[in-house]
């Protein structure tokens, strides 16, 4: 699909009218899509497992933060490439702090600035609020070439502050390599086939896994033995294990523990399954 070009205010207004930068949940349409931006690094179009739509991520760093947001129980909606509209408001902020406002290449048209992520999160009291997050490599924020980047970030910061929205920068220091590799692996198993979603199967699987703690087995060996005990395939045992980790029924230190089938079974704690809890409630 061909990228969009912005050469006039009419172009911007047409895209707003067509719903870009509008909506929430599965109906949200990012202001910028992968095909609209010549990315310096790698860009990604990813089918969401928390929000069922294609997400447009313009760098590996955006993908990393997206994985963390999908895994987080506190994040309930993810809107990437969110526009700072109306542009007049952002322009007024730039003027007030004496910063040159960006324009589209080879035009005098004011640029529609975007924030990498506008999230809806649930706070500890159960209330929902919006938070804005911009992801940047630490190297882009220091040194001689960072001045222009910091100027635009100041516009973005003040824009969200004027809306009463918490805004922060997230850098690559926020992620460990193990965390991102682990999340990329286990999110593939966020949903399983109906045959593998039976509560008794998960309970028996967890019981077998807990009983394996006394042995110094690799994860692959452990899963093969569980598969044999439960009369399921090794592939199915692997899928159930990663599914339980993604859904936090098995709690593992994903930040510092690489999940390798050839490595030892990682340390874990077992949380009550939501399915098991609901069954107990029905029986009481």
From TrEMBL:
MF terms (GO), sorted A to Z: endonuclease activity; nucleic acid binding
Keyword set, alphabetical order: Endonuclease, Hydrolase, Nuclease
Location of the TnsA endonuclease N-terminal domain: 72-172
CDD domains assigned: TnsA_endonuclease-like
SUPFAM superfamilies in the cross-refs: Restriction endonuclease-like (SSF52980)
Protein's UniProt name: TnsA endonuclease N terminal
Source organism (scientific name): Pseudomonas abietaniphila
């Amino acid at each position: 699909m061909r990228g969009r070009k912005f050469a006039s205010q009419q172009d911007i207004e047409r895209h707003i009218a067509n719903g870009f930068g509008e909506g929430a949940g599965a109906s949200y349409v990012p202001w910028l899509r992968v095909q609209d931006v010549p990315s310096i690094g790698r860009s990604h179009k990813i089918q969401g497992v928390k929000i069922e739509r294609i997400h447009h991520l313009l760098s590996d760093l955006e993908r990393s933060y997206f994985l963390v947001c999908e895994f987080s129980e506190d994040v309930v909606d993810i809107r990437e490439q969110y526009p700072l509209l109306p542009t007049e408001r952002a322009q007024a902020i730039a003027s007030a702090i004496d910063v040159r406002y960006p324009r589209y290449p080879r035009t005098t048209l004011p640029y529609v600035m975007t924030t990498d992520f506008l999230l809806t999160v649930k706070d500890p009291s159960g209330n929902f609020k919006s938070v804005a997050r911009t992801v940047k490599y630490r190297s882009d924020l220091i040194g001689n070439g960072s001045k222009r980047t910091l100027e635009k970030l100041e516009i973005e910061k003040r824009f969200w502050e004027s809306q009463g929205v918490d805004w922060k920068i997230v850098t690559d220091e926020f992620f460990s390599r193990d965390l991102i590799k682990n999340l990329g692996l286990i999110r593939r198993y966020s949903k399983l086939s109906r045959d593998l979603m039976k509560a008794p199967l998960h309970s028996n699987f967890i019981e077998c896994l807990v009983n394996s703690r006394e042995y110094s087995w690799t994860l692959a060996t452990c899963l093969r033995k569980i598969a044999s005990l439960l009369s399921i395939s090794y592939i199915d045992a692997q899928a159930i294990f990663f599914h339980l980790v993604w859904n936090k029924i098995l709690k593992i230190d994903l930040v510092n523990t690489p999940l390798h089938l050839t490595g030892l079974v990682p340390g874990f704690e077992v949380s009550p399954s939501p399915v098991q809890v609901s069954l107990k409630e029905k029986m009481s």
